[in-house]
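User: I'm writing a short methods note and want a consistent example. For Ferredoxin reductase, I'll paste the sequence; you return only the structure tokens, no commentary, since I'll be parsing the reply automatically.
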Amino acid sequence: MTRTAASGRAVVVGAALAGLRGAEALRRAGFAGSLTIVGAEPHPPYDRPPLSKHVLTGEVPAEATRLPSLVDLDATWRLGTAATGLDRHRRTLRLADGAELPYDRLLVATGTRARPWPNPHEGRLGGVYSIRDRDDAASLRAAFAARPRRVLIIGGGFIGCEVASACRSLDIPVTLVEPSATPLARVLGTHLGAVVRALHEARGVDLRCNAEVEWLEDDGAGHVSRARLAGGGSIEADVVVVALGAVRNTDWLAGSGLSADPGGLDCDGTGHALDEAGEPDTNIAAAGDVARFPHPLYDGRRVALEHWGNAVEQAEHAGRLLAGCPSEAPYGALPTFWSTQGGINIKSVGLTDGADGLVIAQGSPKEGRFLALYGRQGRCIAAVSIDCARWLPAYAAMIAERAPFPPIRRGTDQPAGLDILPPGLPEKPQR
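Assistant:
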């Protein structure tokens, strides 16, 4: 489709990191038409990573997380008004306040929301929190400042572990319940998960792995008092943090004819949204957590990435695409991620899904400073460093080059033997 980059009406749905950077990319690529940015939250774009770390400990106020704008956007902002529907035939976007916005180019960057506690009544009890947006973080910070007797965290993923770390930094008693054998088992596997478990236990976190919360108990006055565990037993807590992952914000696309579900909005390799027949709508692109796309580095397997770096790079790609300046190659930036827990920096490149082997390629877990490399079918696919990030760029290059696994032996700072270990990752269905 040929279009003039300098004209028309562009609408960005989603006023977070991907939406902001996508709008900036549109302008940088020469788009000079009208630009409207729609956001469900009332706040201008802000940075989410500090919410589960520095905001909870009080080091950074929630309102101080605003993202800088890198370009003069000359945009109309519609904040505090969610998108509720999309009519692709009329090229209009419906908003919660009843307004309709026409578009010629549409960037979908609606991100995710926290997965709620499955029992709505229990989820509405006083003292029950999730953490995804700025208001969530401010509310939970206030709860921590009130010095609860005990915090219970349900879910041992990155958010759950970061909140547990914040609790211990504040000297608040905390229990974390995780159904897998270790924290982060679904992302790192049980081998590295055991290292994370030891880290948190050494800081005083009460970890209950291989355990599940069955229901939350009301104290009779509408406030949570304890959690009942499946199989018996209970944990008393006056603050409960539900950290069960995220659901992608695609509900508003129902009836639009686009291929979307709670796992994301499907895109082709260029970044255009796909309809239910698998055909691209060249007026629509997607970026950030909501975009599910075929990653060329992983044999075209469809992935949706909840990574800060991906939101920035994919938004740049999508903005240029909608402005009429597409990239020559399909989008396939190497996924990167980081987390800070208990003063330890965990950084990763690549995707561990489907790994059939792991080696400790640098450093030593006994020293608390090492890098683990994951392989699949004889190829390097991911690397995770724990306080050993200096080596990460070299292994990122190996992953991007589809280098053989295991890596070359006898390198600097490598263990004497590179034993191939089972990573302990759960089986995942492949799309």
